[in-house]
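User: Last request for today: this protein with hexanoyl-coenzyme A, please.
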Amino acid sequence: MKTYDDILIDKLENGVCCITLNRPEARNALRTQLLAELSDAFNTLNFDDSIRCVVLTGGEKVFAAGADVAEMASMGMMGIMQDERPKYWASIAAFPKPVIAAVNGYALGGGCELTMHADIIIAGSNAQFGQPEINLGIIPGAGGTQRLIRTVGKALASKMILTGEFINADTALSAGLVAEITQPESCIDRAIELAQKIAQKAPLAVQQVKAALNKSYETSLSDGLNFEREAFVMLAGTDDRNEGLAAFLEKRKPEFNGK
Ligand code: HXC
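Assistant: Here's the final one, the structure of the complex with hexanoyl-coenzyme A:
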């Protein structure tokens, strides 16, 4: 896989790839180049059958401090209108394999929005989540007003977005934004451990589960149930479903081949 400037790619054992945001001098601010690289990496990993789950992190100190404010300041309304960044965000959102965000330190603005593109968020106890755009005279622009409210509910989302106040890892856990809290130094390892567990499952079932869970954000219960049913029926035609059921009955470990 190719190398990038603003992100590091680390293909690990057992079907997991770790992507690390790598602009420590700017608190991993998400300049256009970084988003373009992230989008390119996800597009490449989509077609890499050896990778079944991705861990996304900013390292042990900071996840990401949001959009690059200096870059944003150089863009007027026309620039924002014709911005290529929504295209990159869309391809990150469309990545069909599971993504686990390992979040230490600040996840602010676009950084918080990026964590919400992940399927599971593991937070170090030092994590802080916030949407401070209101302090800059702007609003969240990569899904914050929509995804945060669906995740933590109207009361907390409105407080965070209207005041710009951050929440810590404990509040994020009790609000349902994060799945687990770890020591900061264990956060990435724990995310990798979970990713390796997911990578052992039947890949087609995993991708259908991700699609169905995401569907539930966007649709009525009856449409969501229809989507789930169609996915369930479709999976009945896979080798991996036959293997999974047979392995259970034969009291052995299944060997899934993604077919
Ligand atoms: C550009 C940034 C940056 C950012 C930090 N830096 N955040 N550069 N864009 N978002 C740079 C600083 O300018 C500084 O550069 C260096 O990183 C270290 O920052 P400090 O402030 O000195 O660090 P610290 O005291 O640890 O404070 C960290 C921080 C703070 C709390 C994260 O930097 C901060 O509040 N950043 C802005 C957060 C924010 O408002 N995010 C929302 C952005 S808008 P120098 O050169 O001085 O060392 C947004 C909209 C999304 O995300 C729209 C859709 C994409």
